[in-house]
Amino acid sequence: MAATTHPAHEALLTRWNGLLRAVRDEAQAPDLPDPAPYGLELLRRWAEPQRRYHTTDHLLSVLDRIDLLAGYADDVQNVRLAAWFHDAVYLPDRSTNEERSARLAERALPEAGVDAARAAEVARLVLLTRDHDPAEDDRDGEVLCDADLAVLASPPQEYAAYAAAVREEYGFVPDDAFRAGRARVLRSLLGLPRLFRTPEGQDRWEDVARRNAATELELLEAAGADTGADADAGTGADTESR
């Protein structure tokens, strides 16, 4: 049976095509490759069967949140490109997804006609989604990380669905190990001075996100999660939000 196409597939492909054309030197347009095959390959990746949270829906949500925060970015086009690539490589049993996604951006973007300096900057932004702790003066990094973490501020029912989807992605991990890894990630996030760096992100999402994460952590601890200090990094390193 053929895979079902996401309802936003064509709209996302249109967004990708426009984005790529906007960042390329259109004076060379006759010699530049068609952006569509690159977008189709990325959308294929986002629809892979091992994904439950890190899906096309997540890509769409991050892109929409970047649009909301666009005024805070120095180069919002770089942020949008980083969103497309930030989970393009996603295998729940690997701890190198961000690095592999960044390398994909560095390979694919120049091939698609994007200059190497921009591709390198996109790869740098992708790597920030490992810990969501950009430097104070990194406006593009702040926008990307805020957009990626905004799911933490979802209404209770949506937050529960998000947490359940993350658990399903890690279905191969035993309950005790998952709870320890997930608790470690939540403690790390709650230990940040601010989850959200842009003024808009702080106003919209900070308080609710902290309440949601703290509540989930309390539930994990009540179910027997340990301090997480000895948890296998591979069981929870990618479970926070992306």
From TrEMBL:
It comes from the Bacteria. Residues 221-242 are annotated as: Disordered. PANTHER family: HD PHOSPHOHYDROLASE FAMILY PROTEIN-RELATED, PTHR21174. This is Metal-dependent HD superfamily phosphohydrolase. It comes from Streptomyces thermolineatus. The lineage of its organism: Bacteria, Bacillati, Actinomycetota, Actinomycetes, Kitasatosporales.
